[in-house]
Design a protein that fits this description.
Order of helices and strands of chain A: EEEHEEHEHHHEHEHEEHH
Shape of chain B: globular
Number of strands of chain B: 4
Structural class of chain A: alpha/beta
Number of domains of chain B: 1
Strand order of the largest sheet of chain A: 6-7-8-3-9-10
Number of strands of chain A: 10
Number of helices of chain A: 9
Radius of gyration of chain B: 22 Å
Largest interface: A-B, 41 and 28 residues
Radius of gyration of chain A: 18 Å
Number of helices of chain B: 17
Oligomer: heterodimer
Distance between the termini of chain A: 46 Å
Shape of chain A: globular
Helix content of chain B: over 70%
Chain lengths: 239, 346
């Protein structure tokens, strides 16, 4: 049984179908890349899975149980964590407090939560910054913080929304390493990304979306040769 | 342990001073300061910690006032008990209000609370069976109340003063507890970023509704106290917009999201306000507004927030002079050691 199953998921905004009839399954332990041109519906799909949006139609199951209609905190409670495309730290709080707030989900007592948070911070290489206010971090460190916070909720599935966006090539290398490290801990990962080199390196399977529809699903090397994908990115060959 | 005992003794001593002075006006001002401390703290719990700016706390205050008043006037319930009933009623009513208003965020939430408060005021004006409408409710005498074997005579000011000390103690104690609790941490997370709070598993709606109920209980108790102390209430006096605004002023000028802020804010504004009020009717509101502007422009963390920062700095200076070990722990971390390390590996 797949960890995450989407069945004909559709989301309508007025007359616009941001996500249309998308079906896909993610197995435990996979790293699935989700790519597509701007406006393809990738972030909307993440919002649908995590409960920030309700699907207009279709079914979403996590671990076999439907999670449609659950509010985001409840989805997080089931074991789905996410990061945001535009980072959303708690800016006036320290790195440690930021992550502790996430660790409260599994550890009700503060000392336990703080200990778990510190472990996640160390995992992401932020321990030197643990007393820094989140608002004062560099973008790279804020991305680390996003991931540390998601990790501290002890997820089974982690949805990363453009974790490499805005980073320089060196930082991208580091961030890719971090994603692989989280995967190594047994977390299933879905990742939206535009940096193709990174997607090819990290994921074993790539799903391509265009105009809200899934147009390809397969191994990275096959997907980039798929005519539908090529035309989605570069347009149709003239003549 | 010994330090907290010393602190408690100190607070008790300060609280006893107005009683010893024996000046009736001074005692009156002290009672008002403490009442406004309770109200400022009530607003601060929601507005300061959770960042949910309510312009409608007068509704909760008014509900507390009316329930306390009618519990005595209609049911003959002794005021001492009616007060807690008023607090409970305000908390109860706040739950549906919260469910309704918390669907909205930011300024929309604030405007919704404003609208709800106006609705409550208009209902009170027209629902004569329950509130006697614009005529208001007047009680001429308060009964003696038996408390722990002592007969307390509410016809004089000292019992009211002690009751106000108790209420302010409860309000500030609740805030201090909140600041250390998980609930308090959740509130700050909601204030900082509601989406992120929800994403890490915080039930933001429930957290806000629970906090509003706590805030409402304090505001309701303040309202009940007001009713008993002044013995007259009408919709404009206990449900007016000005009342909601005064709570905001006190919390902001004192220091948003701090424990001592409301006390400091009330101390400042009420003292100045009462002095001005004796010269002309609504002059205190002008002064409040002025202080609000000053606070927003030059003192965004409030008077108490600023003082607390100074104290902290002074304390850190002292430890640095005596030890130096603390500095190493809290001092600036070396620049990006992790980046340097990972670059080196490659």
């Amino acid at each position: 049984m797949a960890l995450l199953e989407l069945e004909s998921v559709t989301r309508q905004f007025g007359g616009l179908r941001a996500v249309s009839q998308v079906s896909l399954a993610v197995d435990e332990g996979e790293v699935v890349g989700l790519i597509g041109p701007n406006g393809a519906g990738k972030t909307t799909l993440f919002n649908l899975i995590t409960g920030f949006l309700r699907p207009s139609a279709g079914a979403i199951r996590f671990g076999g149980a439907s999670i449609v209609g659950l509010r985001p905190h409840a989805v997080a409670g089931r074991g789905v964590a996410r990061t945001f495309q535009v980072v959303k730290p708690f800016p006036a709080l320290s790195v440690h407090e930021n992550v502790t707030l996430a660790a409260f989900l599994r550890h009700r007592r503060r000392p336990d939560a703080e200990r778990a948070a510190l472990a996640a911070i160390t995992e992401l290489g932020l321990e030197a910054r643990r007393s820094t206010l989140a608002g004062q971090l560099t973008l790279m460190d804020q991305k680390r913080l996003e991931m540390a916070r998601a990790l501290a909720t002890e997820p089974r599935l982690l949805l990363l929304d453009e974790p490499l966006c805005g980073l320089n090539p060196t930082e991208i290398e580091v961030a890719c390493g971090l994603v692989e490290r989280i995967h190594g801990r047994g977390v299933t990962i879905m990742i939206v990304e535009h940096v193709m080199k990174a997607i090819m390196r990290i994921s074993r399977r790539v799903v391509v979306m265009q105009h809200g529809e899934k147009i390809a699903d397969g191994a990275p090397a096959d997907v980039v040769r798929d005519p539908a994908v090529v035309s989605a990115y570069f347009g149709k060959r003239a003549g | 342990m010994r330090r907290s005992l010393v602190r408690a003794a100190l607070v008790a001593a300060v609280a006893a001073v107005p009683l010893a002075v024996g000046n009736s006006f001074a005692l009156h001002v002290c009672i008002l300061i403490l009442m406004w401390t309770v109200l400022g703290a009530a607003w601060n719990v929601l507005g300061g910690f959770a960042g949910q700016v309510s312009f409608g706390h007068a509704a909760l205050f008014g509900i507390g006032a009316y329930v306390t008043m009618q519990a005595y006037a209609l049911l003959g319930l002794p005021p001492w008990w009616g007060l807690w009933l008023g607090a409970a009623a305000a908390a109860l009513v706040s739950v549906p209000i919260g469910m309704l208003c918390f669907r909205l965020r930011g300024p929309y939430f604030s405007l919704a609370t404003l609208a709800v408060a106006e609705i409550v005021r208009l209902v009170a004006l027209n629902w004569e069976w329950a509130t006697r409408g614009p005529e208001g409710i007047l009680i001429t005498s308060l009964p003696r109340v038996e408390l722990f074997g002592h007969a307390v005579n509410f016809e004089s000011k000292p019992p009211f003063y002690l009751l106000a000390v108790l209420l302010a103690g409860v309000a500030l104690g609740a805030t201090a507890w909140l600041r250390r609790s998980r609930l308090g941490a959740y509130l700050v997370a909601i204030r900082e970023n509601e989406d992120a709070a929800e994403a890490v598993g915080i039930d933001t709606v429930r957290t806000k509704v629970v906090t509003l109920a706590l805030s409402a209980a304090l505001a309701g108790a303040g309202g009940g106290f007001y009713a008993l102390y002044f013995r007259y209430i009408d919709p404009d006096a206990v449900l007016g917009l000005a009342l909601s605004m005064e709570m905001v002023f006190i919390a902001v000028v004192g220091g948003l999201g701090t424990v001592g802020g409301p006390l400091v804010g009330a101390l400042f504004l009420t003292t100045i306000g009462e002095t001005v009020r004796s010269h002309f009717q609504v002059g205190h509101l002008i002064v409040y507004g002025l202080f609000m502007m000053v606070a927003i422009r030059w003192l965004p963390e409030g008077i108490w927030g600023r003082v607390a920062r100074w104290l902290e700095r002074a304390q850190r200076g002292r430890t640095a002079a005596s030890g130096g070990a603390v500095v190493a722990a809290t001092g600036p971390a070396p620049v990006e050691p992790d980046h340097a390390a990972s670059a080196g590996r490659r």
